[in-house]
Each structure stands twice: as C-alpha cells, then as structure tokens.
TrEMBL record:
Function: Part of the ABC transporter complex MalEFGK involved in maltose/maltodextrin import. Probably responsible for the translocation of the substrate across the membrane.
The name this protein goes by in its record: Maltose/maltodextrin transport system permease protein MalG
Topology term for the membrane: Multi-pass membrane protein
Keywords on record: Cell membrane, Membrane, Sugar transport, Transmembrane, Transmembrane helix, Transport
Protein's GO biological process: transmembrane transport
Segments traversing the membrane: 21-42, 81-102, 114-135, 147-170, 191-214, 220-242, 249-270
Length: 283
C-alpha cells in the first residue's frame, strides 16, 4: 500500500511538473515578443544593428520616442482617442436596443433567429469582402478622409460583435423585474434605463472594451478611408515606419509601445468585466 501511494504521488508530481513547464513555455511565447518590443524601443540604433536579438539595451535611450513624437505621432494619438471611443459609444447605442428587442420581443416565423444568423454572418465575414462597396458608399456620402466617416465604417466590425455579446446579458435580466416596474407605472424607457442597463453593466463594460480595442487597432478600413496624414490613426502612422528602404525598428517599436499602453491599462482595470463578458458572449 505505501508503495502504491508512493507511485501515485510520483505520477501526480510528474504531471504537475509537465503542466508547469508547459505554462512557462506558453508564458515565454506570449511575453518574449512584448519584452523584445519594449527593449527595441529603448535601444540605440547602432546597438540594435549590432545585436538585433538582444532583449534589453545596455544603455537605454529615449531618442526613438522623441523622434516618433516629433514626427506627428501626437496628432495620430489624438485621432485614435477620438475615433475609438466614438466608435465604441455608437456601437453600444445601436447594439443595446437591438439586443433588448431580440431578447424581449416576440418575432413571427423566428425572424429573430434569422436576424441573429445575419449578425453572425456579418461578424464572421472578412471585412475586405465589403471594403469596395463600403468605400463607394462613403465616397457618395462625402465621408472619405474624415474621422466621422471612419467611426461609421468601424461599425462593420463593432456592431455585430456588440449585439452578440450584449444579448445574453439582456436575456439574463428577469422579466419579472420589468413587469413589477410596469405595474408601478414605469414606461419602457424608464424600465430600460433604471433596471435593464444597471443589471447589464458588466456586459456593457466588457463589450465597450472589446469594441474599443478593435477600433483602436483597426488598420484596413483606416487605410481605405483616410488619405491625409493629419487624419491618420495610430495603426496608419505606425505603418509609415515600414518602407521599401527598410524598417526603422526603434521608432516602430516605440510607436507600438505607445499604442499598446491604453489598451493594456483598460484591459487590466476591467479584467473581471472582460471575463464575464467573454463567458456571457459564449452562452
């Protein structure tokens, strides 16, 4: 019996050691590129050319950050600060009523299911497939090369995902709460604002963060819609450091580090909401 227990303990220890090694390997795969990006941002150009794979410089410098900021990165940051929250607020304003209607209203012939399938199809569709007609529509509406036009275009990504994520949260709100409020004289708008929205707060926050990250990092539609450097968002500005003559790794990584900070801070601050929103979106 002691021998059997010893063998079982050895097997459990071996399995735990293997799991630990796999976790360390996965963590290294995830963190090493981030560490290299941060190191490259602070590495002098000559040192980077001499030791391209070094994770951290021997003499850190801020020269790349200064060059990036002087090249007009500040304007790109402001543009992204305007576009990403604007796209997020618009997506939530349109998606929440849609999610509420799908959760509460009775549709004939299962039209709600058809609408959900359409939303899912839009969510899964590669944006490049509708880029040309979307460009033509924006040109006809005189929305090209404008930040407002970019906010509207980003709904192609944001709106389907926002509806899909918010729907389970609205469904989880007991209908009895709304019925009780209706008996007390509350109208539909009051029931939504004072009952449904507060109870869906985790879903709203999680959806807002996901939409914000998508809009903050979006490149394809920005490339199609924006032509003036004064309207460039951060991804477009970063693409300027990759040219036919080579890649300026120091400035590119500095711009990447600047671009990553807001999303990392937001994701860390609302981590529990993100987990709830992700699990809710899978229901």
């Amino acid at each position: 019996m002691p021998l059997a227990r010893l063998q079982g303990f050895a097997r459990r220890s071996s399995a735990a050691a293997v799991r630990g090694l796999l976790r360390i390997a996965a963590l290294a795969v995830l963190l090493l590129p981030c560490i290299w990006m941060a190191g490259a941002a602070f590495t002098p150009t000559l040192e980077r050319l001499a030791h391209p794979l070094a994770l951290w410089p021997s003499a850190p410098t801020f020269e790349h950050f200064a060059a990036v900021w002087e090249s007009g990165m500040a304007q790109s940051v402001l543009n992204s600060v305007w576009v990403a929250p604007g796209a997020t607020l618009l997506a939530l304003a349109l998606a929440f009523p849609a999610a509420y209607g799908l959760a509460r209203l009775a549709f004939p012939a299962r039209l709600d299911l058809l609408f959900l399938l359409l939303v899912l199809a839009l969510k899964l569709m590669p944006p490049i497939t509708v880029a040309v007609p979307l460009f033509s529509l924006a040109k006809w509406l005189h929305l090209l090369d404008s930040l407002f036009g970019l906010i509207l275009a980003y709904q192609l990504y944001a709106l389907p995902m926002a509806i899909w994520m918010l729907l389970p949260f609205v469904r989880d709100v007991p209908i009895e709460f709304e019925e009780a409020a209706a008996l007390d004289g509350a109208n539909l708008a009051q029931r939504i604002v004072f009952i449904v929205v507060p109870l869906c707060a985790p879903g709203l926050v999680a959806t807002a963060i996901f939409v914000f990250i998508i809009a903050w990092n979006e490149f394809l539609l920005a490339l199609l819609f924006v032509s003036s450097p004064s309207h460039f968002t951060l991804p477009l500005a970063m693409a300027g450091y990759v040219t036919e003559n080579g890649i300026d790794w120091g400035e590119l990584m500095s711009a990447g580090l600047i671009s990553s900070v807001p999303t990392l801070l937001l994701a860390g601050y609302v981590q529990r909401y993100l987990l709830q929103g992700f699990s809710g979106g899978l229901k």
